[in-house]
Structure formats: C-alpha cells, structure tokens
C-alpha cells in the first residue's frame, strides 16, 4: 500500500477534513451567508432562516472540537495549548447553542408579539417604550452572540496555526528521514 493510502488508516486526513469543515463553515456563515441573507431577504424570512440555521451550526461548532481532539495526528493529550483552544472553541459554541441563541429567539418572538400588539414594526421610527426596551435587550444579546461567535472563530484560527505548525514539523521530520 502506498504511503498516501496508508495515511487513510490514521486519523490525520479526517482531522484535517474536520478542521477544514469547522473553519470554512464558520467563516462562510459569519461573513458571507449571514450578511447576504440579511441583505437579500425580507426581515421575517431572514429571522426564520437564522432560527433554523443557528442550532445545527452551533452544534457543529461544539462537536467538531471533540472529534479533533480524538483524531489529532500529533500527541494532543500532551499539548495543553491545543486542548485549551479546542475546549474554548467547544465551550463558546455551547454558550451560543444553549444560552445566547435561545435568548435571542425568545426576544425575537417577544418583539413579534409586541409588533402585533402595537400594529407597528420593531424598526418603525415611533415605537412604544416596551418595544424600545425589547430592541435594546435584543441588540445586547445579539451583540453577545456575535462576539462569542467571533471568539469561536479566533480560537479555530489559533488551532489552525497550531495544527499547521505540527504538520510542518512532521513534514520536516519526514523529509529528513527520507
């Protein structure tokens, strides 16, 4: 069996694929899909889309770091820095999945109910004090979710640097051995 095919019997290619999915989907959702959907869709459709996208997105961000820890092509259990980064990635995603995301949806629903009660949209110029308070709270929670997601993205990027350093070190060792 060639050395390239024998690599498939290790966790290395699956680790790289999983990392690529995690980093790529986080960048894509954060900077392309979300922005494009916000600009292209009516607000109610955008909100409905986000309600459906975010739970599996945050779940993926929380699960893949554990898979990365299990498939690392280097002795990750001895690498406290990598373990810390992966744990941070999973925890920030869980915060959005379990806490901040549901709070955001709850506030969106409360704003919708207030719109129905007032007969006005939450973004109209003249809204009630209740709607202003809901808008302020929604803005704060949404901002927290965005910051937490950016923390997740930076942690994933930091892990990518660690992974590439391990890969470069392995490449140098393999080249010297040849």
TrEMBL record:
InterPro entries: TMEM205-like (IPR025423), Xanthocillin_Biosynth-Assoc (IPR053009). Keywords: Membrane, Transmembrane, Transmembrane helix. The keyword Nucleotide-binding does not apply. Pfam families: DUF4149. Its main location: membrane. The chain crosses the membrane at residues 16-41, 53-77, 83-102, 140-161. The keyword Transmembrane helix applies. It is found in: Membrane. Residues 18-112 form the TMEM205-like domain. It comes from the Eukaryota. This is TMEM205-like domain-containing protein. It comes from Myxozyma melibiosi. The lineage of its organism: Eukaryota, Fungi, Dikarya, Ascomycota, Saccharomycotina.
